[in-house]
Design brief:
Helix Hairpins; five-stranded antiparallel beta sheet; SH3 type barrels; 10 strands; 8 helices; alpha+beta; Alpha-Beta Plaits
Length: about 350
């Protein structure tokens, strides 16, 4: 038979009985293990993952049972395993990307960095996880799109689970004028944030001086709220509006009141010259600083006389060069006329 295993026809009746018993026991054991795993996982709320893992475990148990049952009737398992190995290597090269996503899907189901319903960010996409299967992670983005992310790419990239905890923190960076009372401004901001519905009181909001800006002292306001992204935007809006009203009420200037950047009779604006926001992931995006633009304008104004003098010198030099060219041309013409 050239080394190809075959089922022995001369197997005894007892061997065939053992074959059938082992195979039936394997099928029953696979079904029981799958049922127990699905029941245990359903209590944790992950029905989809439980079904997939249950099928994989049942397949593994049944495969082992078939191999053991064949050994009971005298089938040589070694050549079968070798042939399966060669075929498996060829199949793995042909279906490399599919197998990569398949194995990554199994790891995602086992490790569970997120579950259906969690709000996540991965591969530059943010949204709610709808499904995790053996090939893709299905995400519904916040702008209403459905994205299918390959499991291999998701597993090999950073994953941010915004719903991992019940609350998360947001930060607002507000600049107050150098002449303002920093302690009073910080207390006004903290009390304004504490009064907003949706802001957690444990831990309570805090406002701390953060840095010296170009024309202001930056105060960082930190507060906790629900981990829902929709709730985060609602609470941030309410906190920002409340802080603005509170600072206006206590007459704390939030723009530089330096006399060099204000004309006579003007009063400082009640809103920050520099306002920045920080997301829950810690990234800071600063708005343009009005004070910085005023300083640049003042520098340009001081440099204007020098630029005007230089332009006048250049114009005089060009006029002299033009006269020289005319005189030289007249000399040439005169010399030609004399010849």
């Amino acid at each position: 038979m050239n080394g190809v295993p075959a089922l022995p026809l001369a197997a005894s009746l007892s061997e065939w009985v053992r074959f059938g018993a082992v195979l039936a026991a394997g099928l029953l054991a696979g079904q029981v293990v799958r049922w127990a795993l699905v029941r245990a996982e359903r209590r944790r709320g992950d029905v989809r993952g439980a079904l997939v893992l249950g099928r994989l475990v049942r397949l593994a148990v049944v495969t082992l049972a078939v191999i053991y049952a064949l050994a009971q009737v005298g089938v040589r398992i070694g050549p079968l395993v070798a042939a399966a190995g060669v075929g498996g290597v060829a199949l793995a090269f042909a279906l490399r990307s599919i197998l990569e996503n398949f194995l990554a899907g199994i790891l995602l189901l086992l490790r569970r960095p997120f579950r259906p319903g969690d709000e996540t960010a991965a591969l530059d996409f943010s949204g709610t996880v709808e499904d995790v299967n053996l090939r893709t992670v299905v995400v519904r983005t916040y702008d209403g799109r459905r994205v299918f992310l390959p499991n291999g790419s998701v597993l090999s990239s950073p994953i941010v689970n915004e719903s991992a905890f019940a609350v998360r923190r947001s930060e607002l960076l507000v600049g107050v004028a150098y002449g303002a009372d920093v302690e009073q401004a910080a207390e006004a901001m903290r009390s304004a944030a504490a009064e907003v519905p949706g802001v957690a009181q444990d831990p309570e909001p805090e406002a701390l001086a953060f840095a010296f800006g170009a024309s202001s002292v930056d105060i960082c306001l930190r507060f906790w709220h629900s981990s829902s992204t929709a709730e985060m935007w609602r609470v941030r809006h309410a906190v920002l509006a409340g802080v603005k009203r509170r600072l206006e009420a206590v007459e704390i200037p939030t723009r530089s009141s330096s006399s060099r950047s204000r004309g006579p009779g003007t009063s400082p604006s009640p809103w920050p010259a520099k306002c920045a926001r920080r997301t829950g992931t810690g990234r800071t995006v600063r708005a343009a600083a009005v004070g910085g633009r005023r300083m640049a304008l003042a520098d340009a104004t001081r440099a204007a006389p020098r630029l005007a003098a230089r332009a006048s010198e250049d114009l005089e030099l060009r006029r002299l060069l033009a006269q020289r060219a005319i005189v030289t041309m007249s000399d040439h013409e005169l010399a030609g006329a004399r010849r």
